């Protein structure tokens, strides 16, 4: 049998036979017009962004250098949790929180979808590395995609191209990640600005460390190094190898005495990670620098402390609500250019605009590509619209953000979006209690995933859509992580809620830069200096224990944000029980003990 000839297929910049065989197999299945290996150069960026402008996918911005505006298909705007699958060999390994289909059946279904799915398009092969290239064991992957938007986004979000390919070798593990828009073009058929398919699958084969994605061009569904690899597949690797892959920002906090603390924080999607990671403190003498805004990989160092690395190379941040008041550091980062903006509004003079930026201009082009004026019924930007920008150009990046050894974590924050019940900050009693706080974390749903917004659900460790295996086993893994460690060296665990509301529905706590006051209290607790009152749910500061100097908000609001209400928490107990019932037999005994103890304390 003669091999199929596809231009570019035989011009690979590697002689890695196993990789070449996979690339050939996919090319033969998907039938692209040509194959291109992404090299990650500026020339490639210029060529592909040019191609996207010609296709009508991108509009170059007049006001920001080397930056582009894109509007997606209105149906392809967020992660699709309903269409996300963990196809473990044993369904029990996928657990009650994931969708599961038998792997062979899923492969058969998706193979038919992929057959010819790249016709009329270019198939790109993107070698990439999550985390520093200089890591002892670099975390490699290859994404095959037929989307130029994905290639240029991967330029920002990952270390990719030649510098990653150089790290590949015989027997060096890498994750295979296959992506197709599912929008083949017949000869002469005109393309659309945002090709995609109504049928979508975001599928993971955890034992094979393989990802198959079909039908969506949106970030979390298509940039497969991000949630698919760095959380769903990596959480399985982490379970097997004794580390943690978490949906966490990493920040560096320096006190007025020049003492450094690294803090990791897990909040569900669109609940404040990027904003906290780039926080500009309002209290004098304190400094925050950023290491990462979405994902942390953590493992114990030789000194027994937990060290965190950010696997990403860019920020894929929620645009609405971001401005010079809330997140000046993000604004300064995107101002430098080299950024992509998806589903925000376009101004008439070639800049981007979104809700939260202050007074809107008299006329905009909305994310739906329609005329928009301040009187319009709908927002100009989709609530999950995003900017995509390199960490490298963030003025407040910590110099050690790219250190393969990571940074030692002093505190872990879990947090959610709750209008009631959950105080501004609560310190856990110990690691096991902290794991209980994380495992029972609740939050109102947001626009970051397709579905209803504002519904309270349990989102354990902010990982509900990202745990690549059984949630009960994942909780046990967290418990075990603490058991093997020196208790004094473990991070202290806190539970925060920036989103509590007063009776008039207003946020009680001003948030954003003012959250520095909460960070200060947490590190003072670590130092044994700050006061707290003991409540049945943990240690909560009194208003006096927080530094409230020159805070604009009324002290009654701060007190209300810190309130512990036993009735509200008693009402929470059946919800936690229901959640544990869903997880079933695999809820660790340690967490059942914690629930019993909480019940006792609540009386
Ligand atoms: P993902 O990128 O989806 O994982 O989101 P994220 O967790 O990084 O959330 P982000 O920081 O982008 O914030 C999401 C939304 O929450 C934005 O609209 C912010 O303006 C808002 N937000 C962030 N921090 C605060 C805060 O301290 N208080 C209030 N009220 N809103 C906040
Ligand atoms: C999230 O939803 O948590 C995000 C955006 O960070 S996405 O890349 O779509 O996952
Ligand atoms: Mn996220």
TrEMBL record:
Residue intervals of the Phosphoenolpyruvate carboxykinase GTP-utilising N-terminal domain: 22-239
Pathway: Carbohydrate biosynthesis; gluconeogenesis
Cofactor comment text: Binds 1 Mn(2+) ion per subunit.
Listed EC numbers: 4.1.1.32
Residue numbers binding substrate: 79, 218-220, 269, 384-386
Any one Gene Ontology BP term: cellular response to glucose stimulus
Gene Ontology annotations for the cellular component aspect, listed alphabetically: cytosol
Catalytic activity: oxaloacetate + GTP = phosphoenolpyruvate + GDP + CO2
Phosphoenolpyruvate carboxykinase C-terminal P-loop domain location: 243-601
Cellular compartment(s): Cytoplasm
Positions with a binding annotation for GTP: 270-275, 386, 417, 512-515
Cofactor: Mn(2+)
Subunit structure: Monomer.
Family: Belongs to the phosphoenolpyruvate carboxykinase [GTP] family.
Protein's name in the database: Phosphoenolpyruvate carboxykinase [GTP]
Taxonomic path: Bacteria, Bacillati, Actinomycetota, Actinomycetes, Pseudonocardiales
């Amino acid at each position: 049998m003669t091999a199929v000839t596809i231009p570019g297929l035989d011009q690979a910049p590697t002689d890695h036979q196993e990789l070449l065989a996979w690339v050939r197999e996919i090319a033969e299945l998907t039938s692209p017009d040509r194959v291109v290996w992404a090299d990650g150069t500026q020339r490639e960026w210029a060529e592909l962004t040019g191609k996207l402008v010609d296709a009508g996918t991108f509009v170059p911005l007049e006001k920001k250098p080397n930056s582009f505006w894109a509007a997606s298909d209105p149906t392809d705007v967020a992660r699709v949790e309903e269409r996300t699958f963990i196809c473990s060999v044993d369904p029990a390994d996928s657990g009650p929180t994931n969708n599961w289909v038998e792997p062979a059946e899923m492969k058969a279904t998706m193979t038919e979808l992929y057959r010819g799915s790249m016709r009329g398009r270019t198939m790109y092969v993107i070698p990439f590395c999550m985390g520093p290239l200089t890591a002892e064991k670099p975390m490699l992957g290859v994404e095959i995609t037929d989307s130029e938007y994905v290639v240029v986004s991967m330029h920002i979000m990952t270390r990719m191209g030649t510098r990653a390919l150089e790290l590949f070798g015989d027997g060096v593990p890498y994750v295979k990640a296959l992506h197709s828009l599912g929008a083949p073009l017949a000869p002469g058929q005109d393309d659309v600005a945002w090709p995609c398919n109504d049928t979508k699958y975001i599928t993971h084969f955890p034992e094979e460390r393989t990802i198959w994605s079909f039908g969506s061009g949106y970030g979390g569904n298509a940039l497969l190094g991000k949630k698919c690899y760095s959380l769903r597949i990596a959480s399985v690797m982490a379970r097997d190898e004794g580390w943690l892959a978490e949906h966490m920002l990493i920040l560096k906090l320096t006190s007025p005495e020049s003492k450094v603390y690294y803090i990791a924080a897990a909040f569900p999607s669109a609940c404040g990670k990027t904003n906290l990671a780039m926080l500009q403190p309002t209290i004098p003498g304190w400094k925050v620098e950023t290491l990462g805004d979405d994902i942390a990989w953590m493992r114990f160092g030789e000194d027994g402390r937990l060290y965190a690395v950010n696997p990403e190379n860019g920020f894929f941040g929620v645009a609405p609500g971001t401005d010079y008041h809330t997140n000046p550091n993000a604004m300064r980062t995107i101002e430098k250019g080299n950024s992509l903006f998806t589903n925000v509004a376009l101004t008439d003079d070639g800049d981007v605009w979104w809700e939260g930026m202050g007074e809107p201009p008299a006329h905009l082009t909305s994310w739906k590509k329609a005329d928009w004026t301040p009187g319009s019924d709908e927002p100009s930007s989709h609530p999950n619209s995003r900017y995509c920008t390199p960490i490298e150009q963030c003025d407040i990046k910590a110099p050690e953000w790219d250190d393969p050894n990571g940074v030692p974590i002093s505190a872990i924050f879990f947090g959610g979006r709750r209008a009631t019940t959950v105080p501004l900050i609560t310190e856990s009693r110990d690691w096991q209690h902290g794991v209980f706080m994380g495992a029972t974390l609740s939050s109102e749903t947001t626009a970051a995933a397709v579905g209803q917004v504002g519904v309270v659900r349990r989102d354990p460790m902010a990982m509900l859509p990202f745990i690549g295996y059984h949630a009960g086993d994942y909780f046990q893994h967290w418990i075990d992580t603490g058991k093997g460690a020196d208790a004094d060296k473990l991070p202290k665990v806190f539970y925060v809620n920036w989103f509590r509301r007063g009776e008039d529905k207003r946020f009680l706590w001003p948030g954003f830069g003012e959250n520095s006051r909460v960070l200060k209290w947490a590190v003072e607790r670590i130092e044994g200096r700050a006061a707290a009152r003991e409540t049945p749910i943990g240690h909560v500061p009194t208003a006096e224990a927080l530094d409230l100097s020159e805070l604009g908000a009324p002290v009654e609001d701060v007190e209300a944000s810190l309130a512990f209400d036993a009735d509200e928490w008693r009402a929470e107990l059946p919800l936690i029980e229901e959640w544990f019932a869903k997880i079933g037999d695999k809820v660790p005994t340690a967490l059942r003990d914690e629930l019993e103890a909480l019940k006792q304390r609540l009386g």
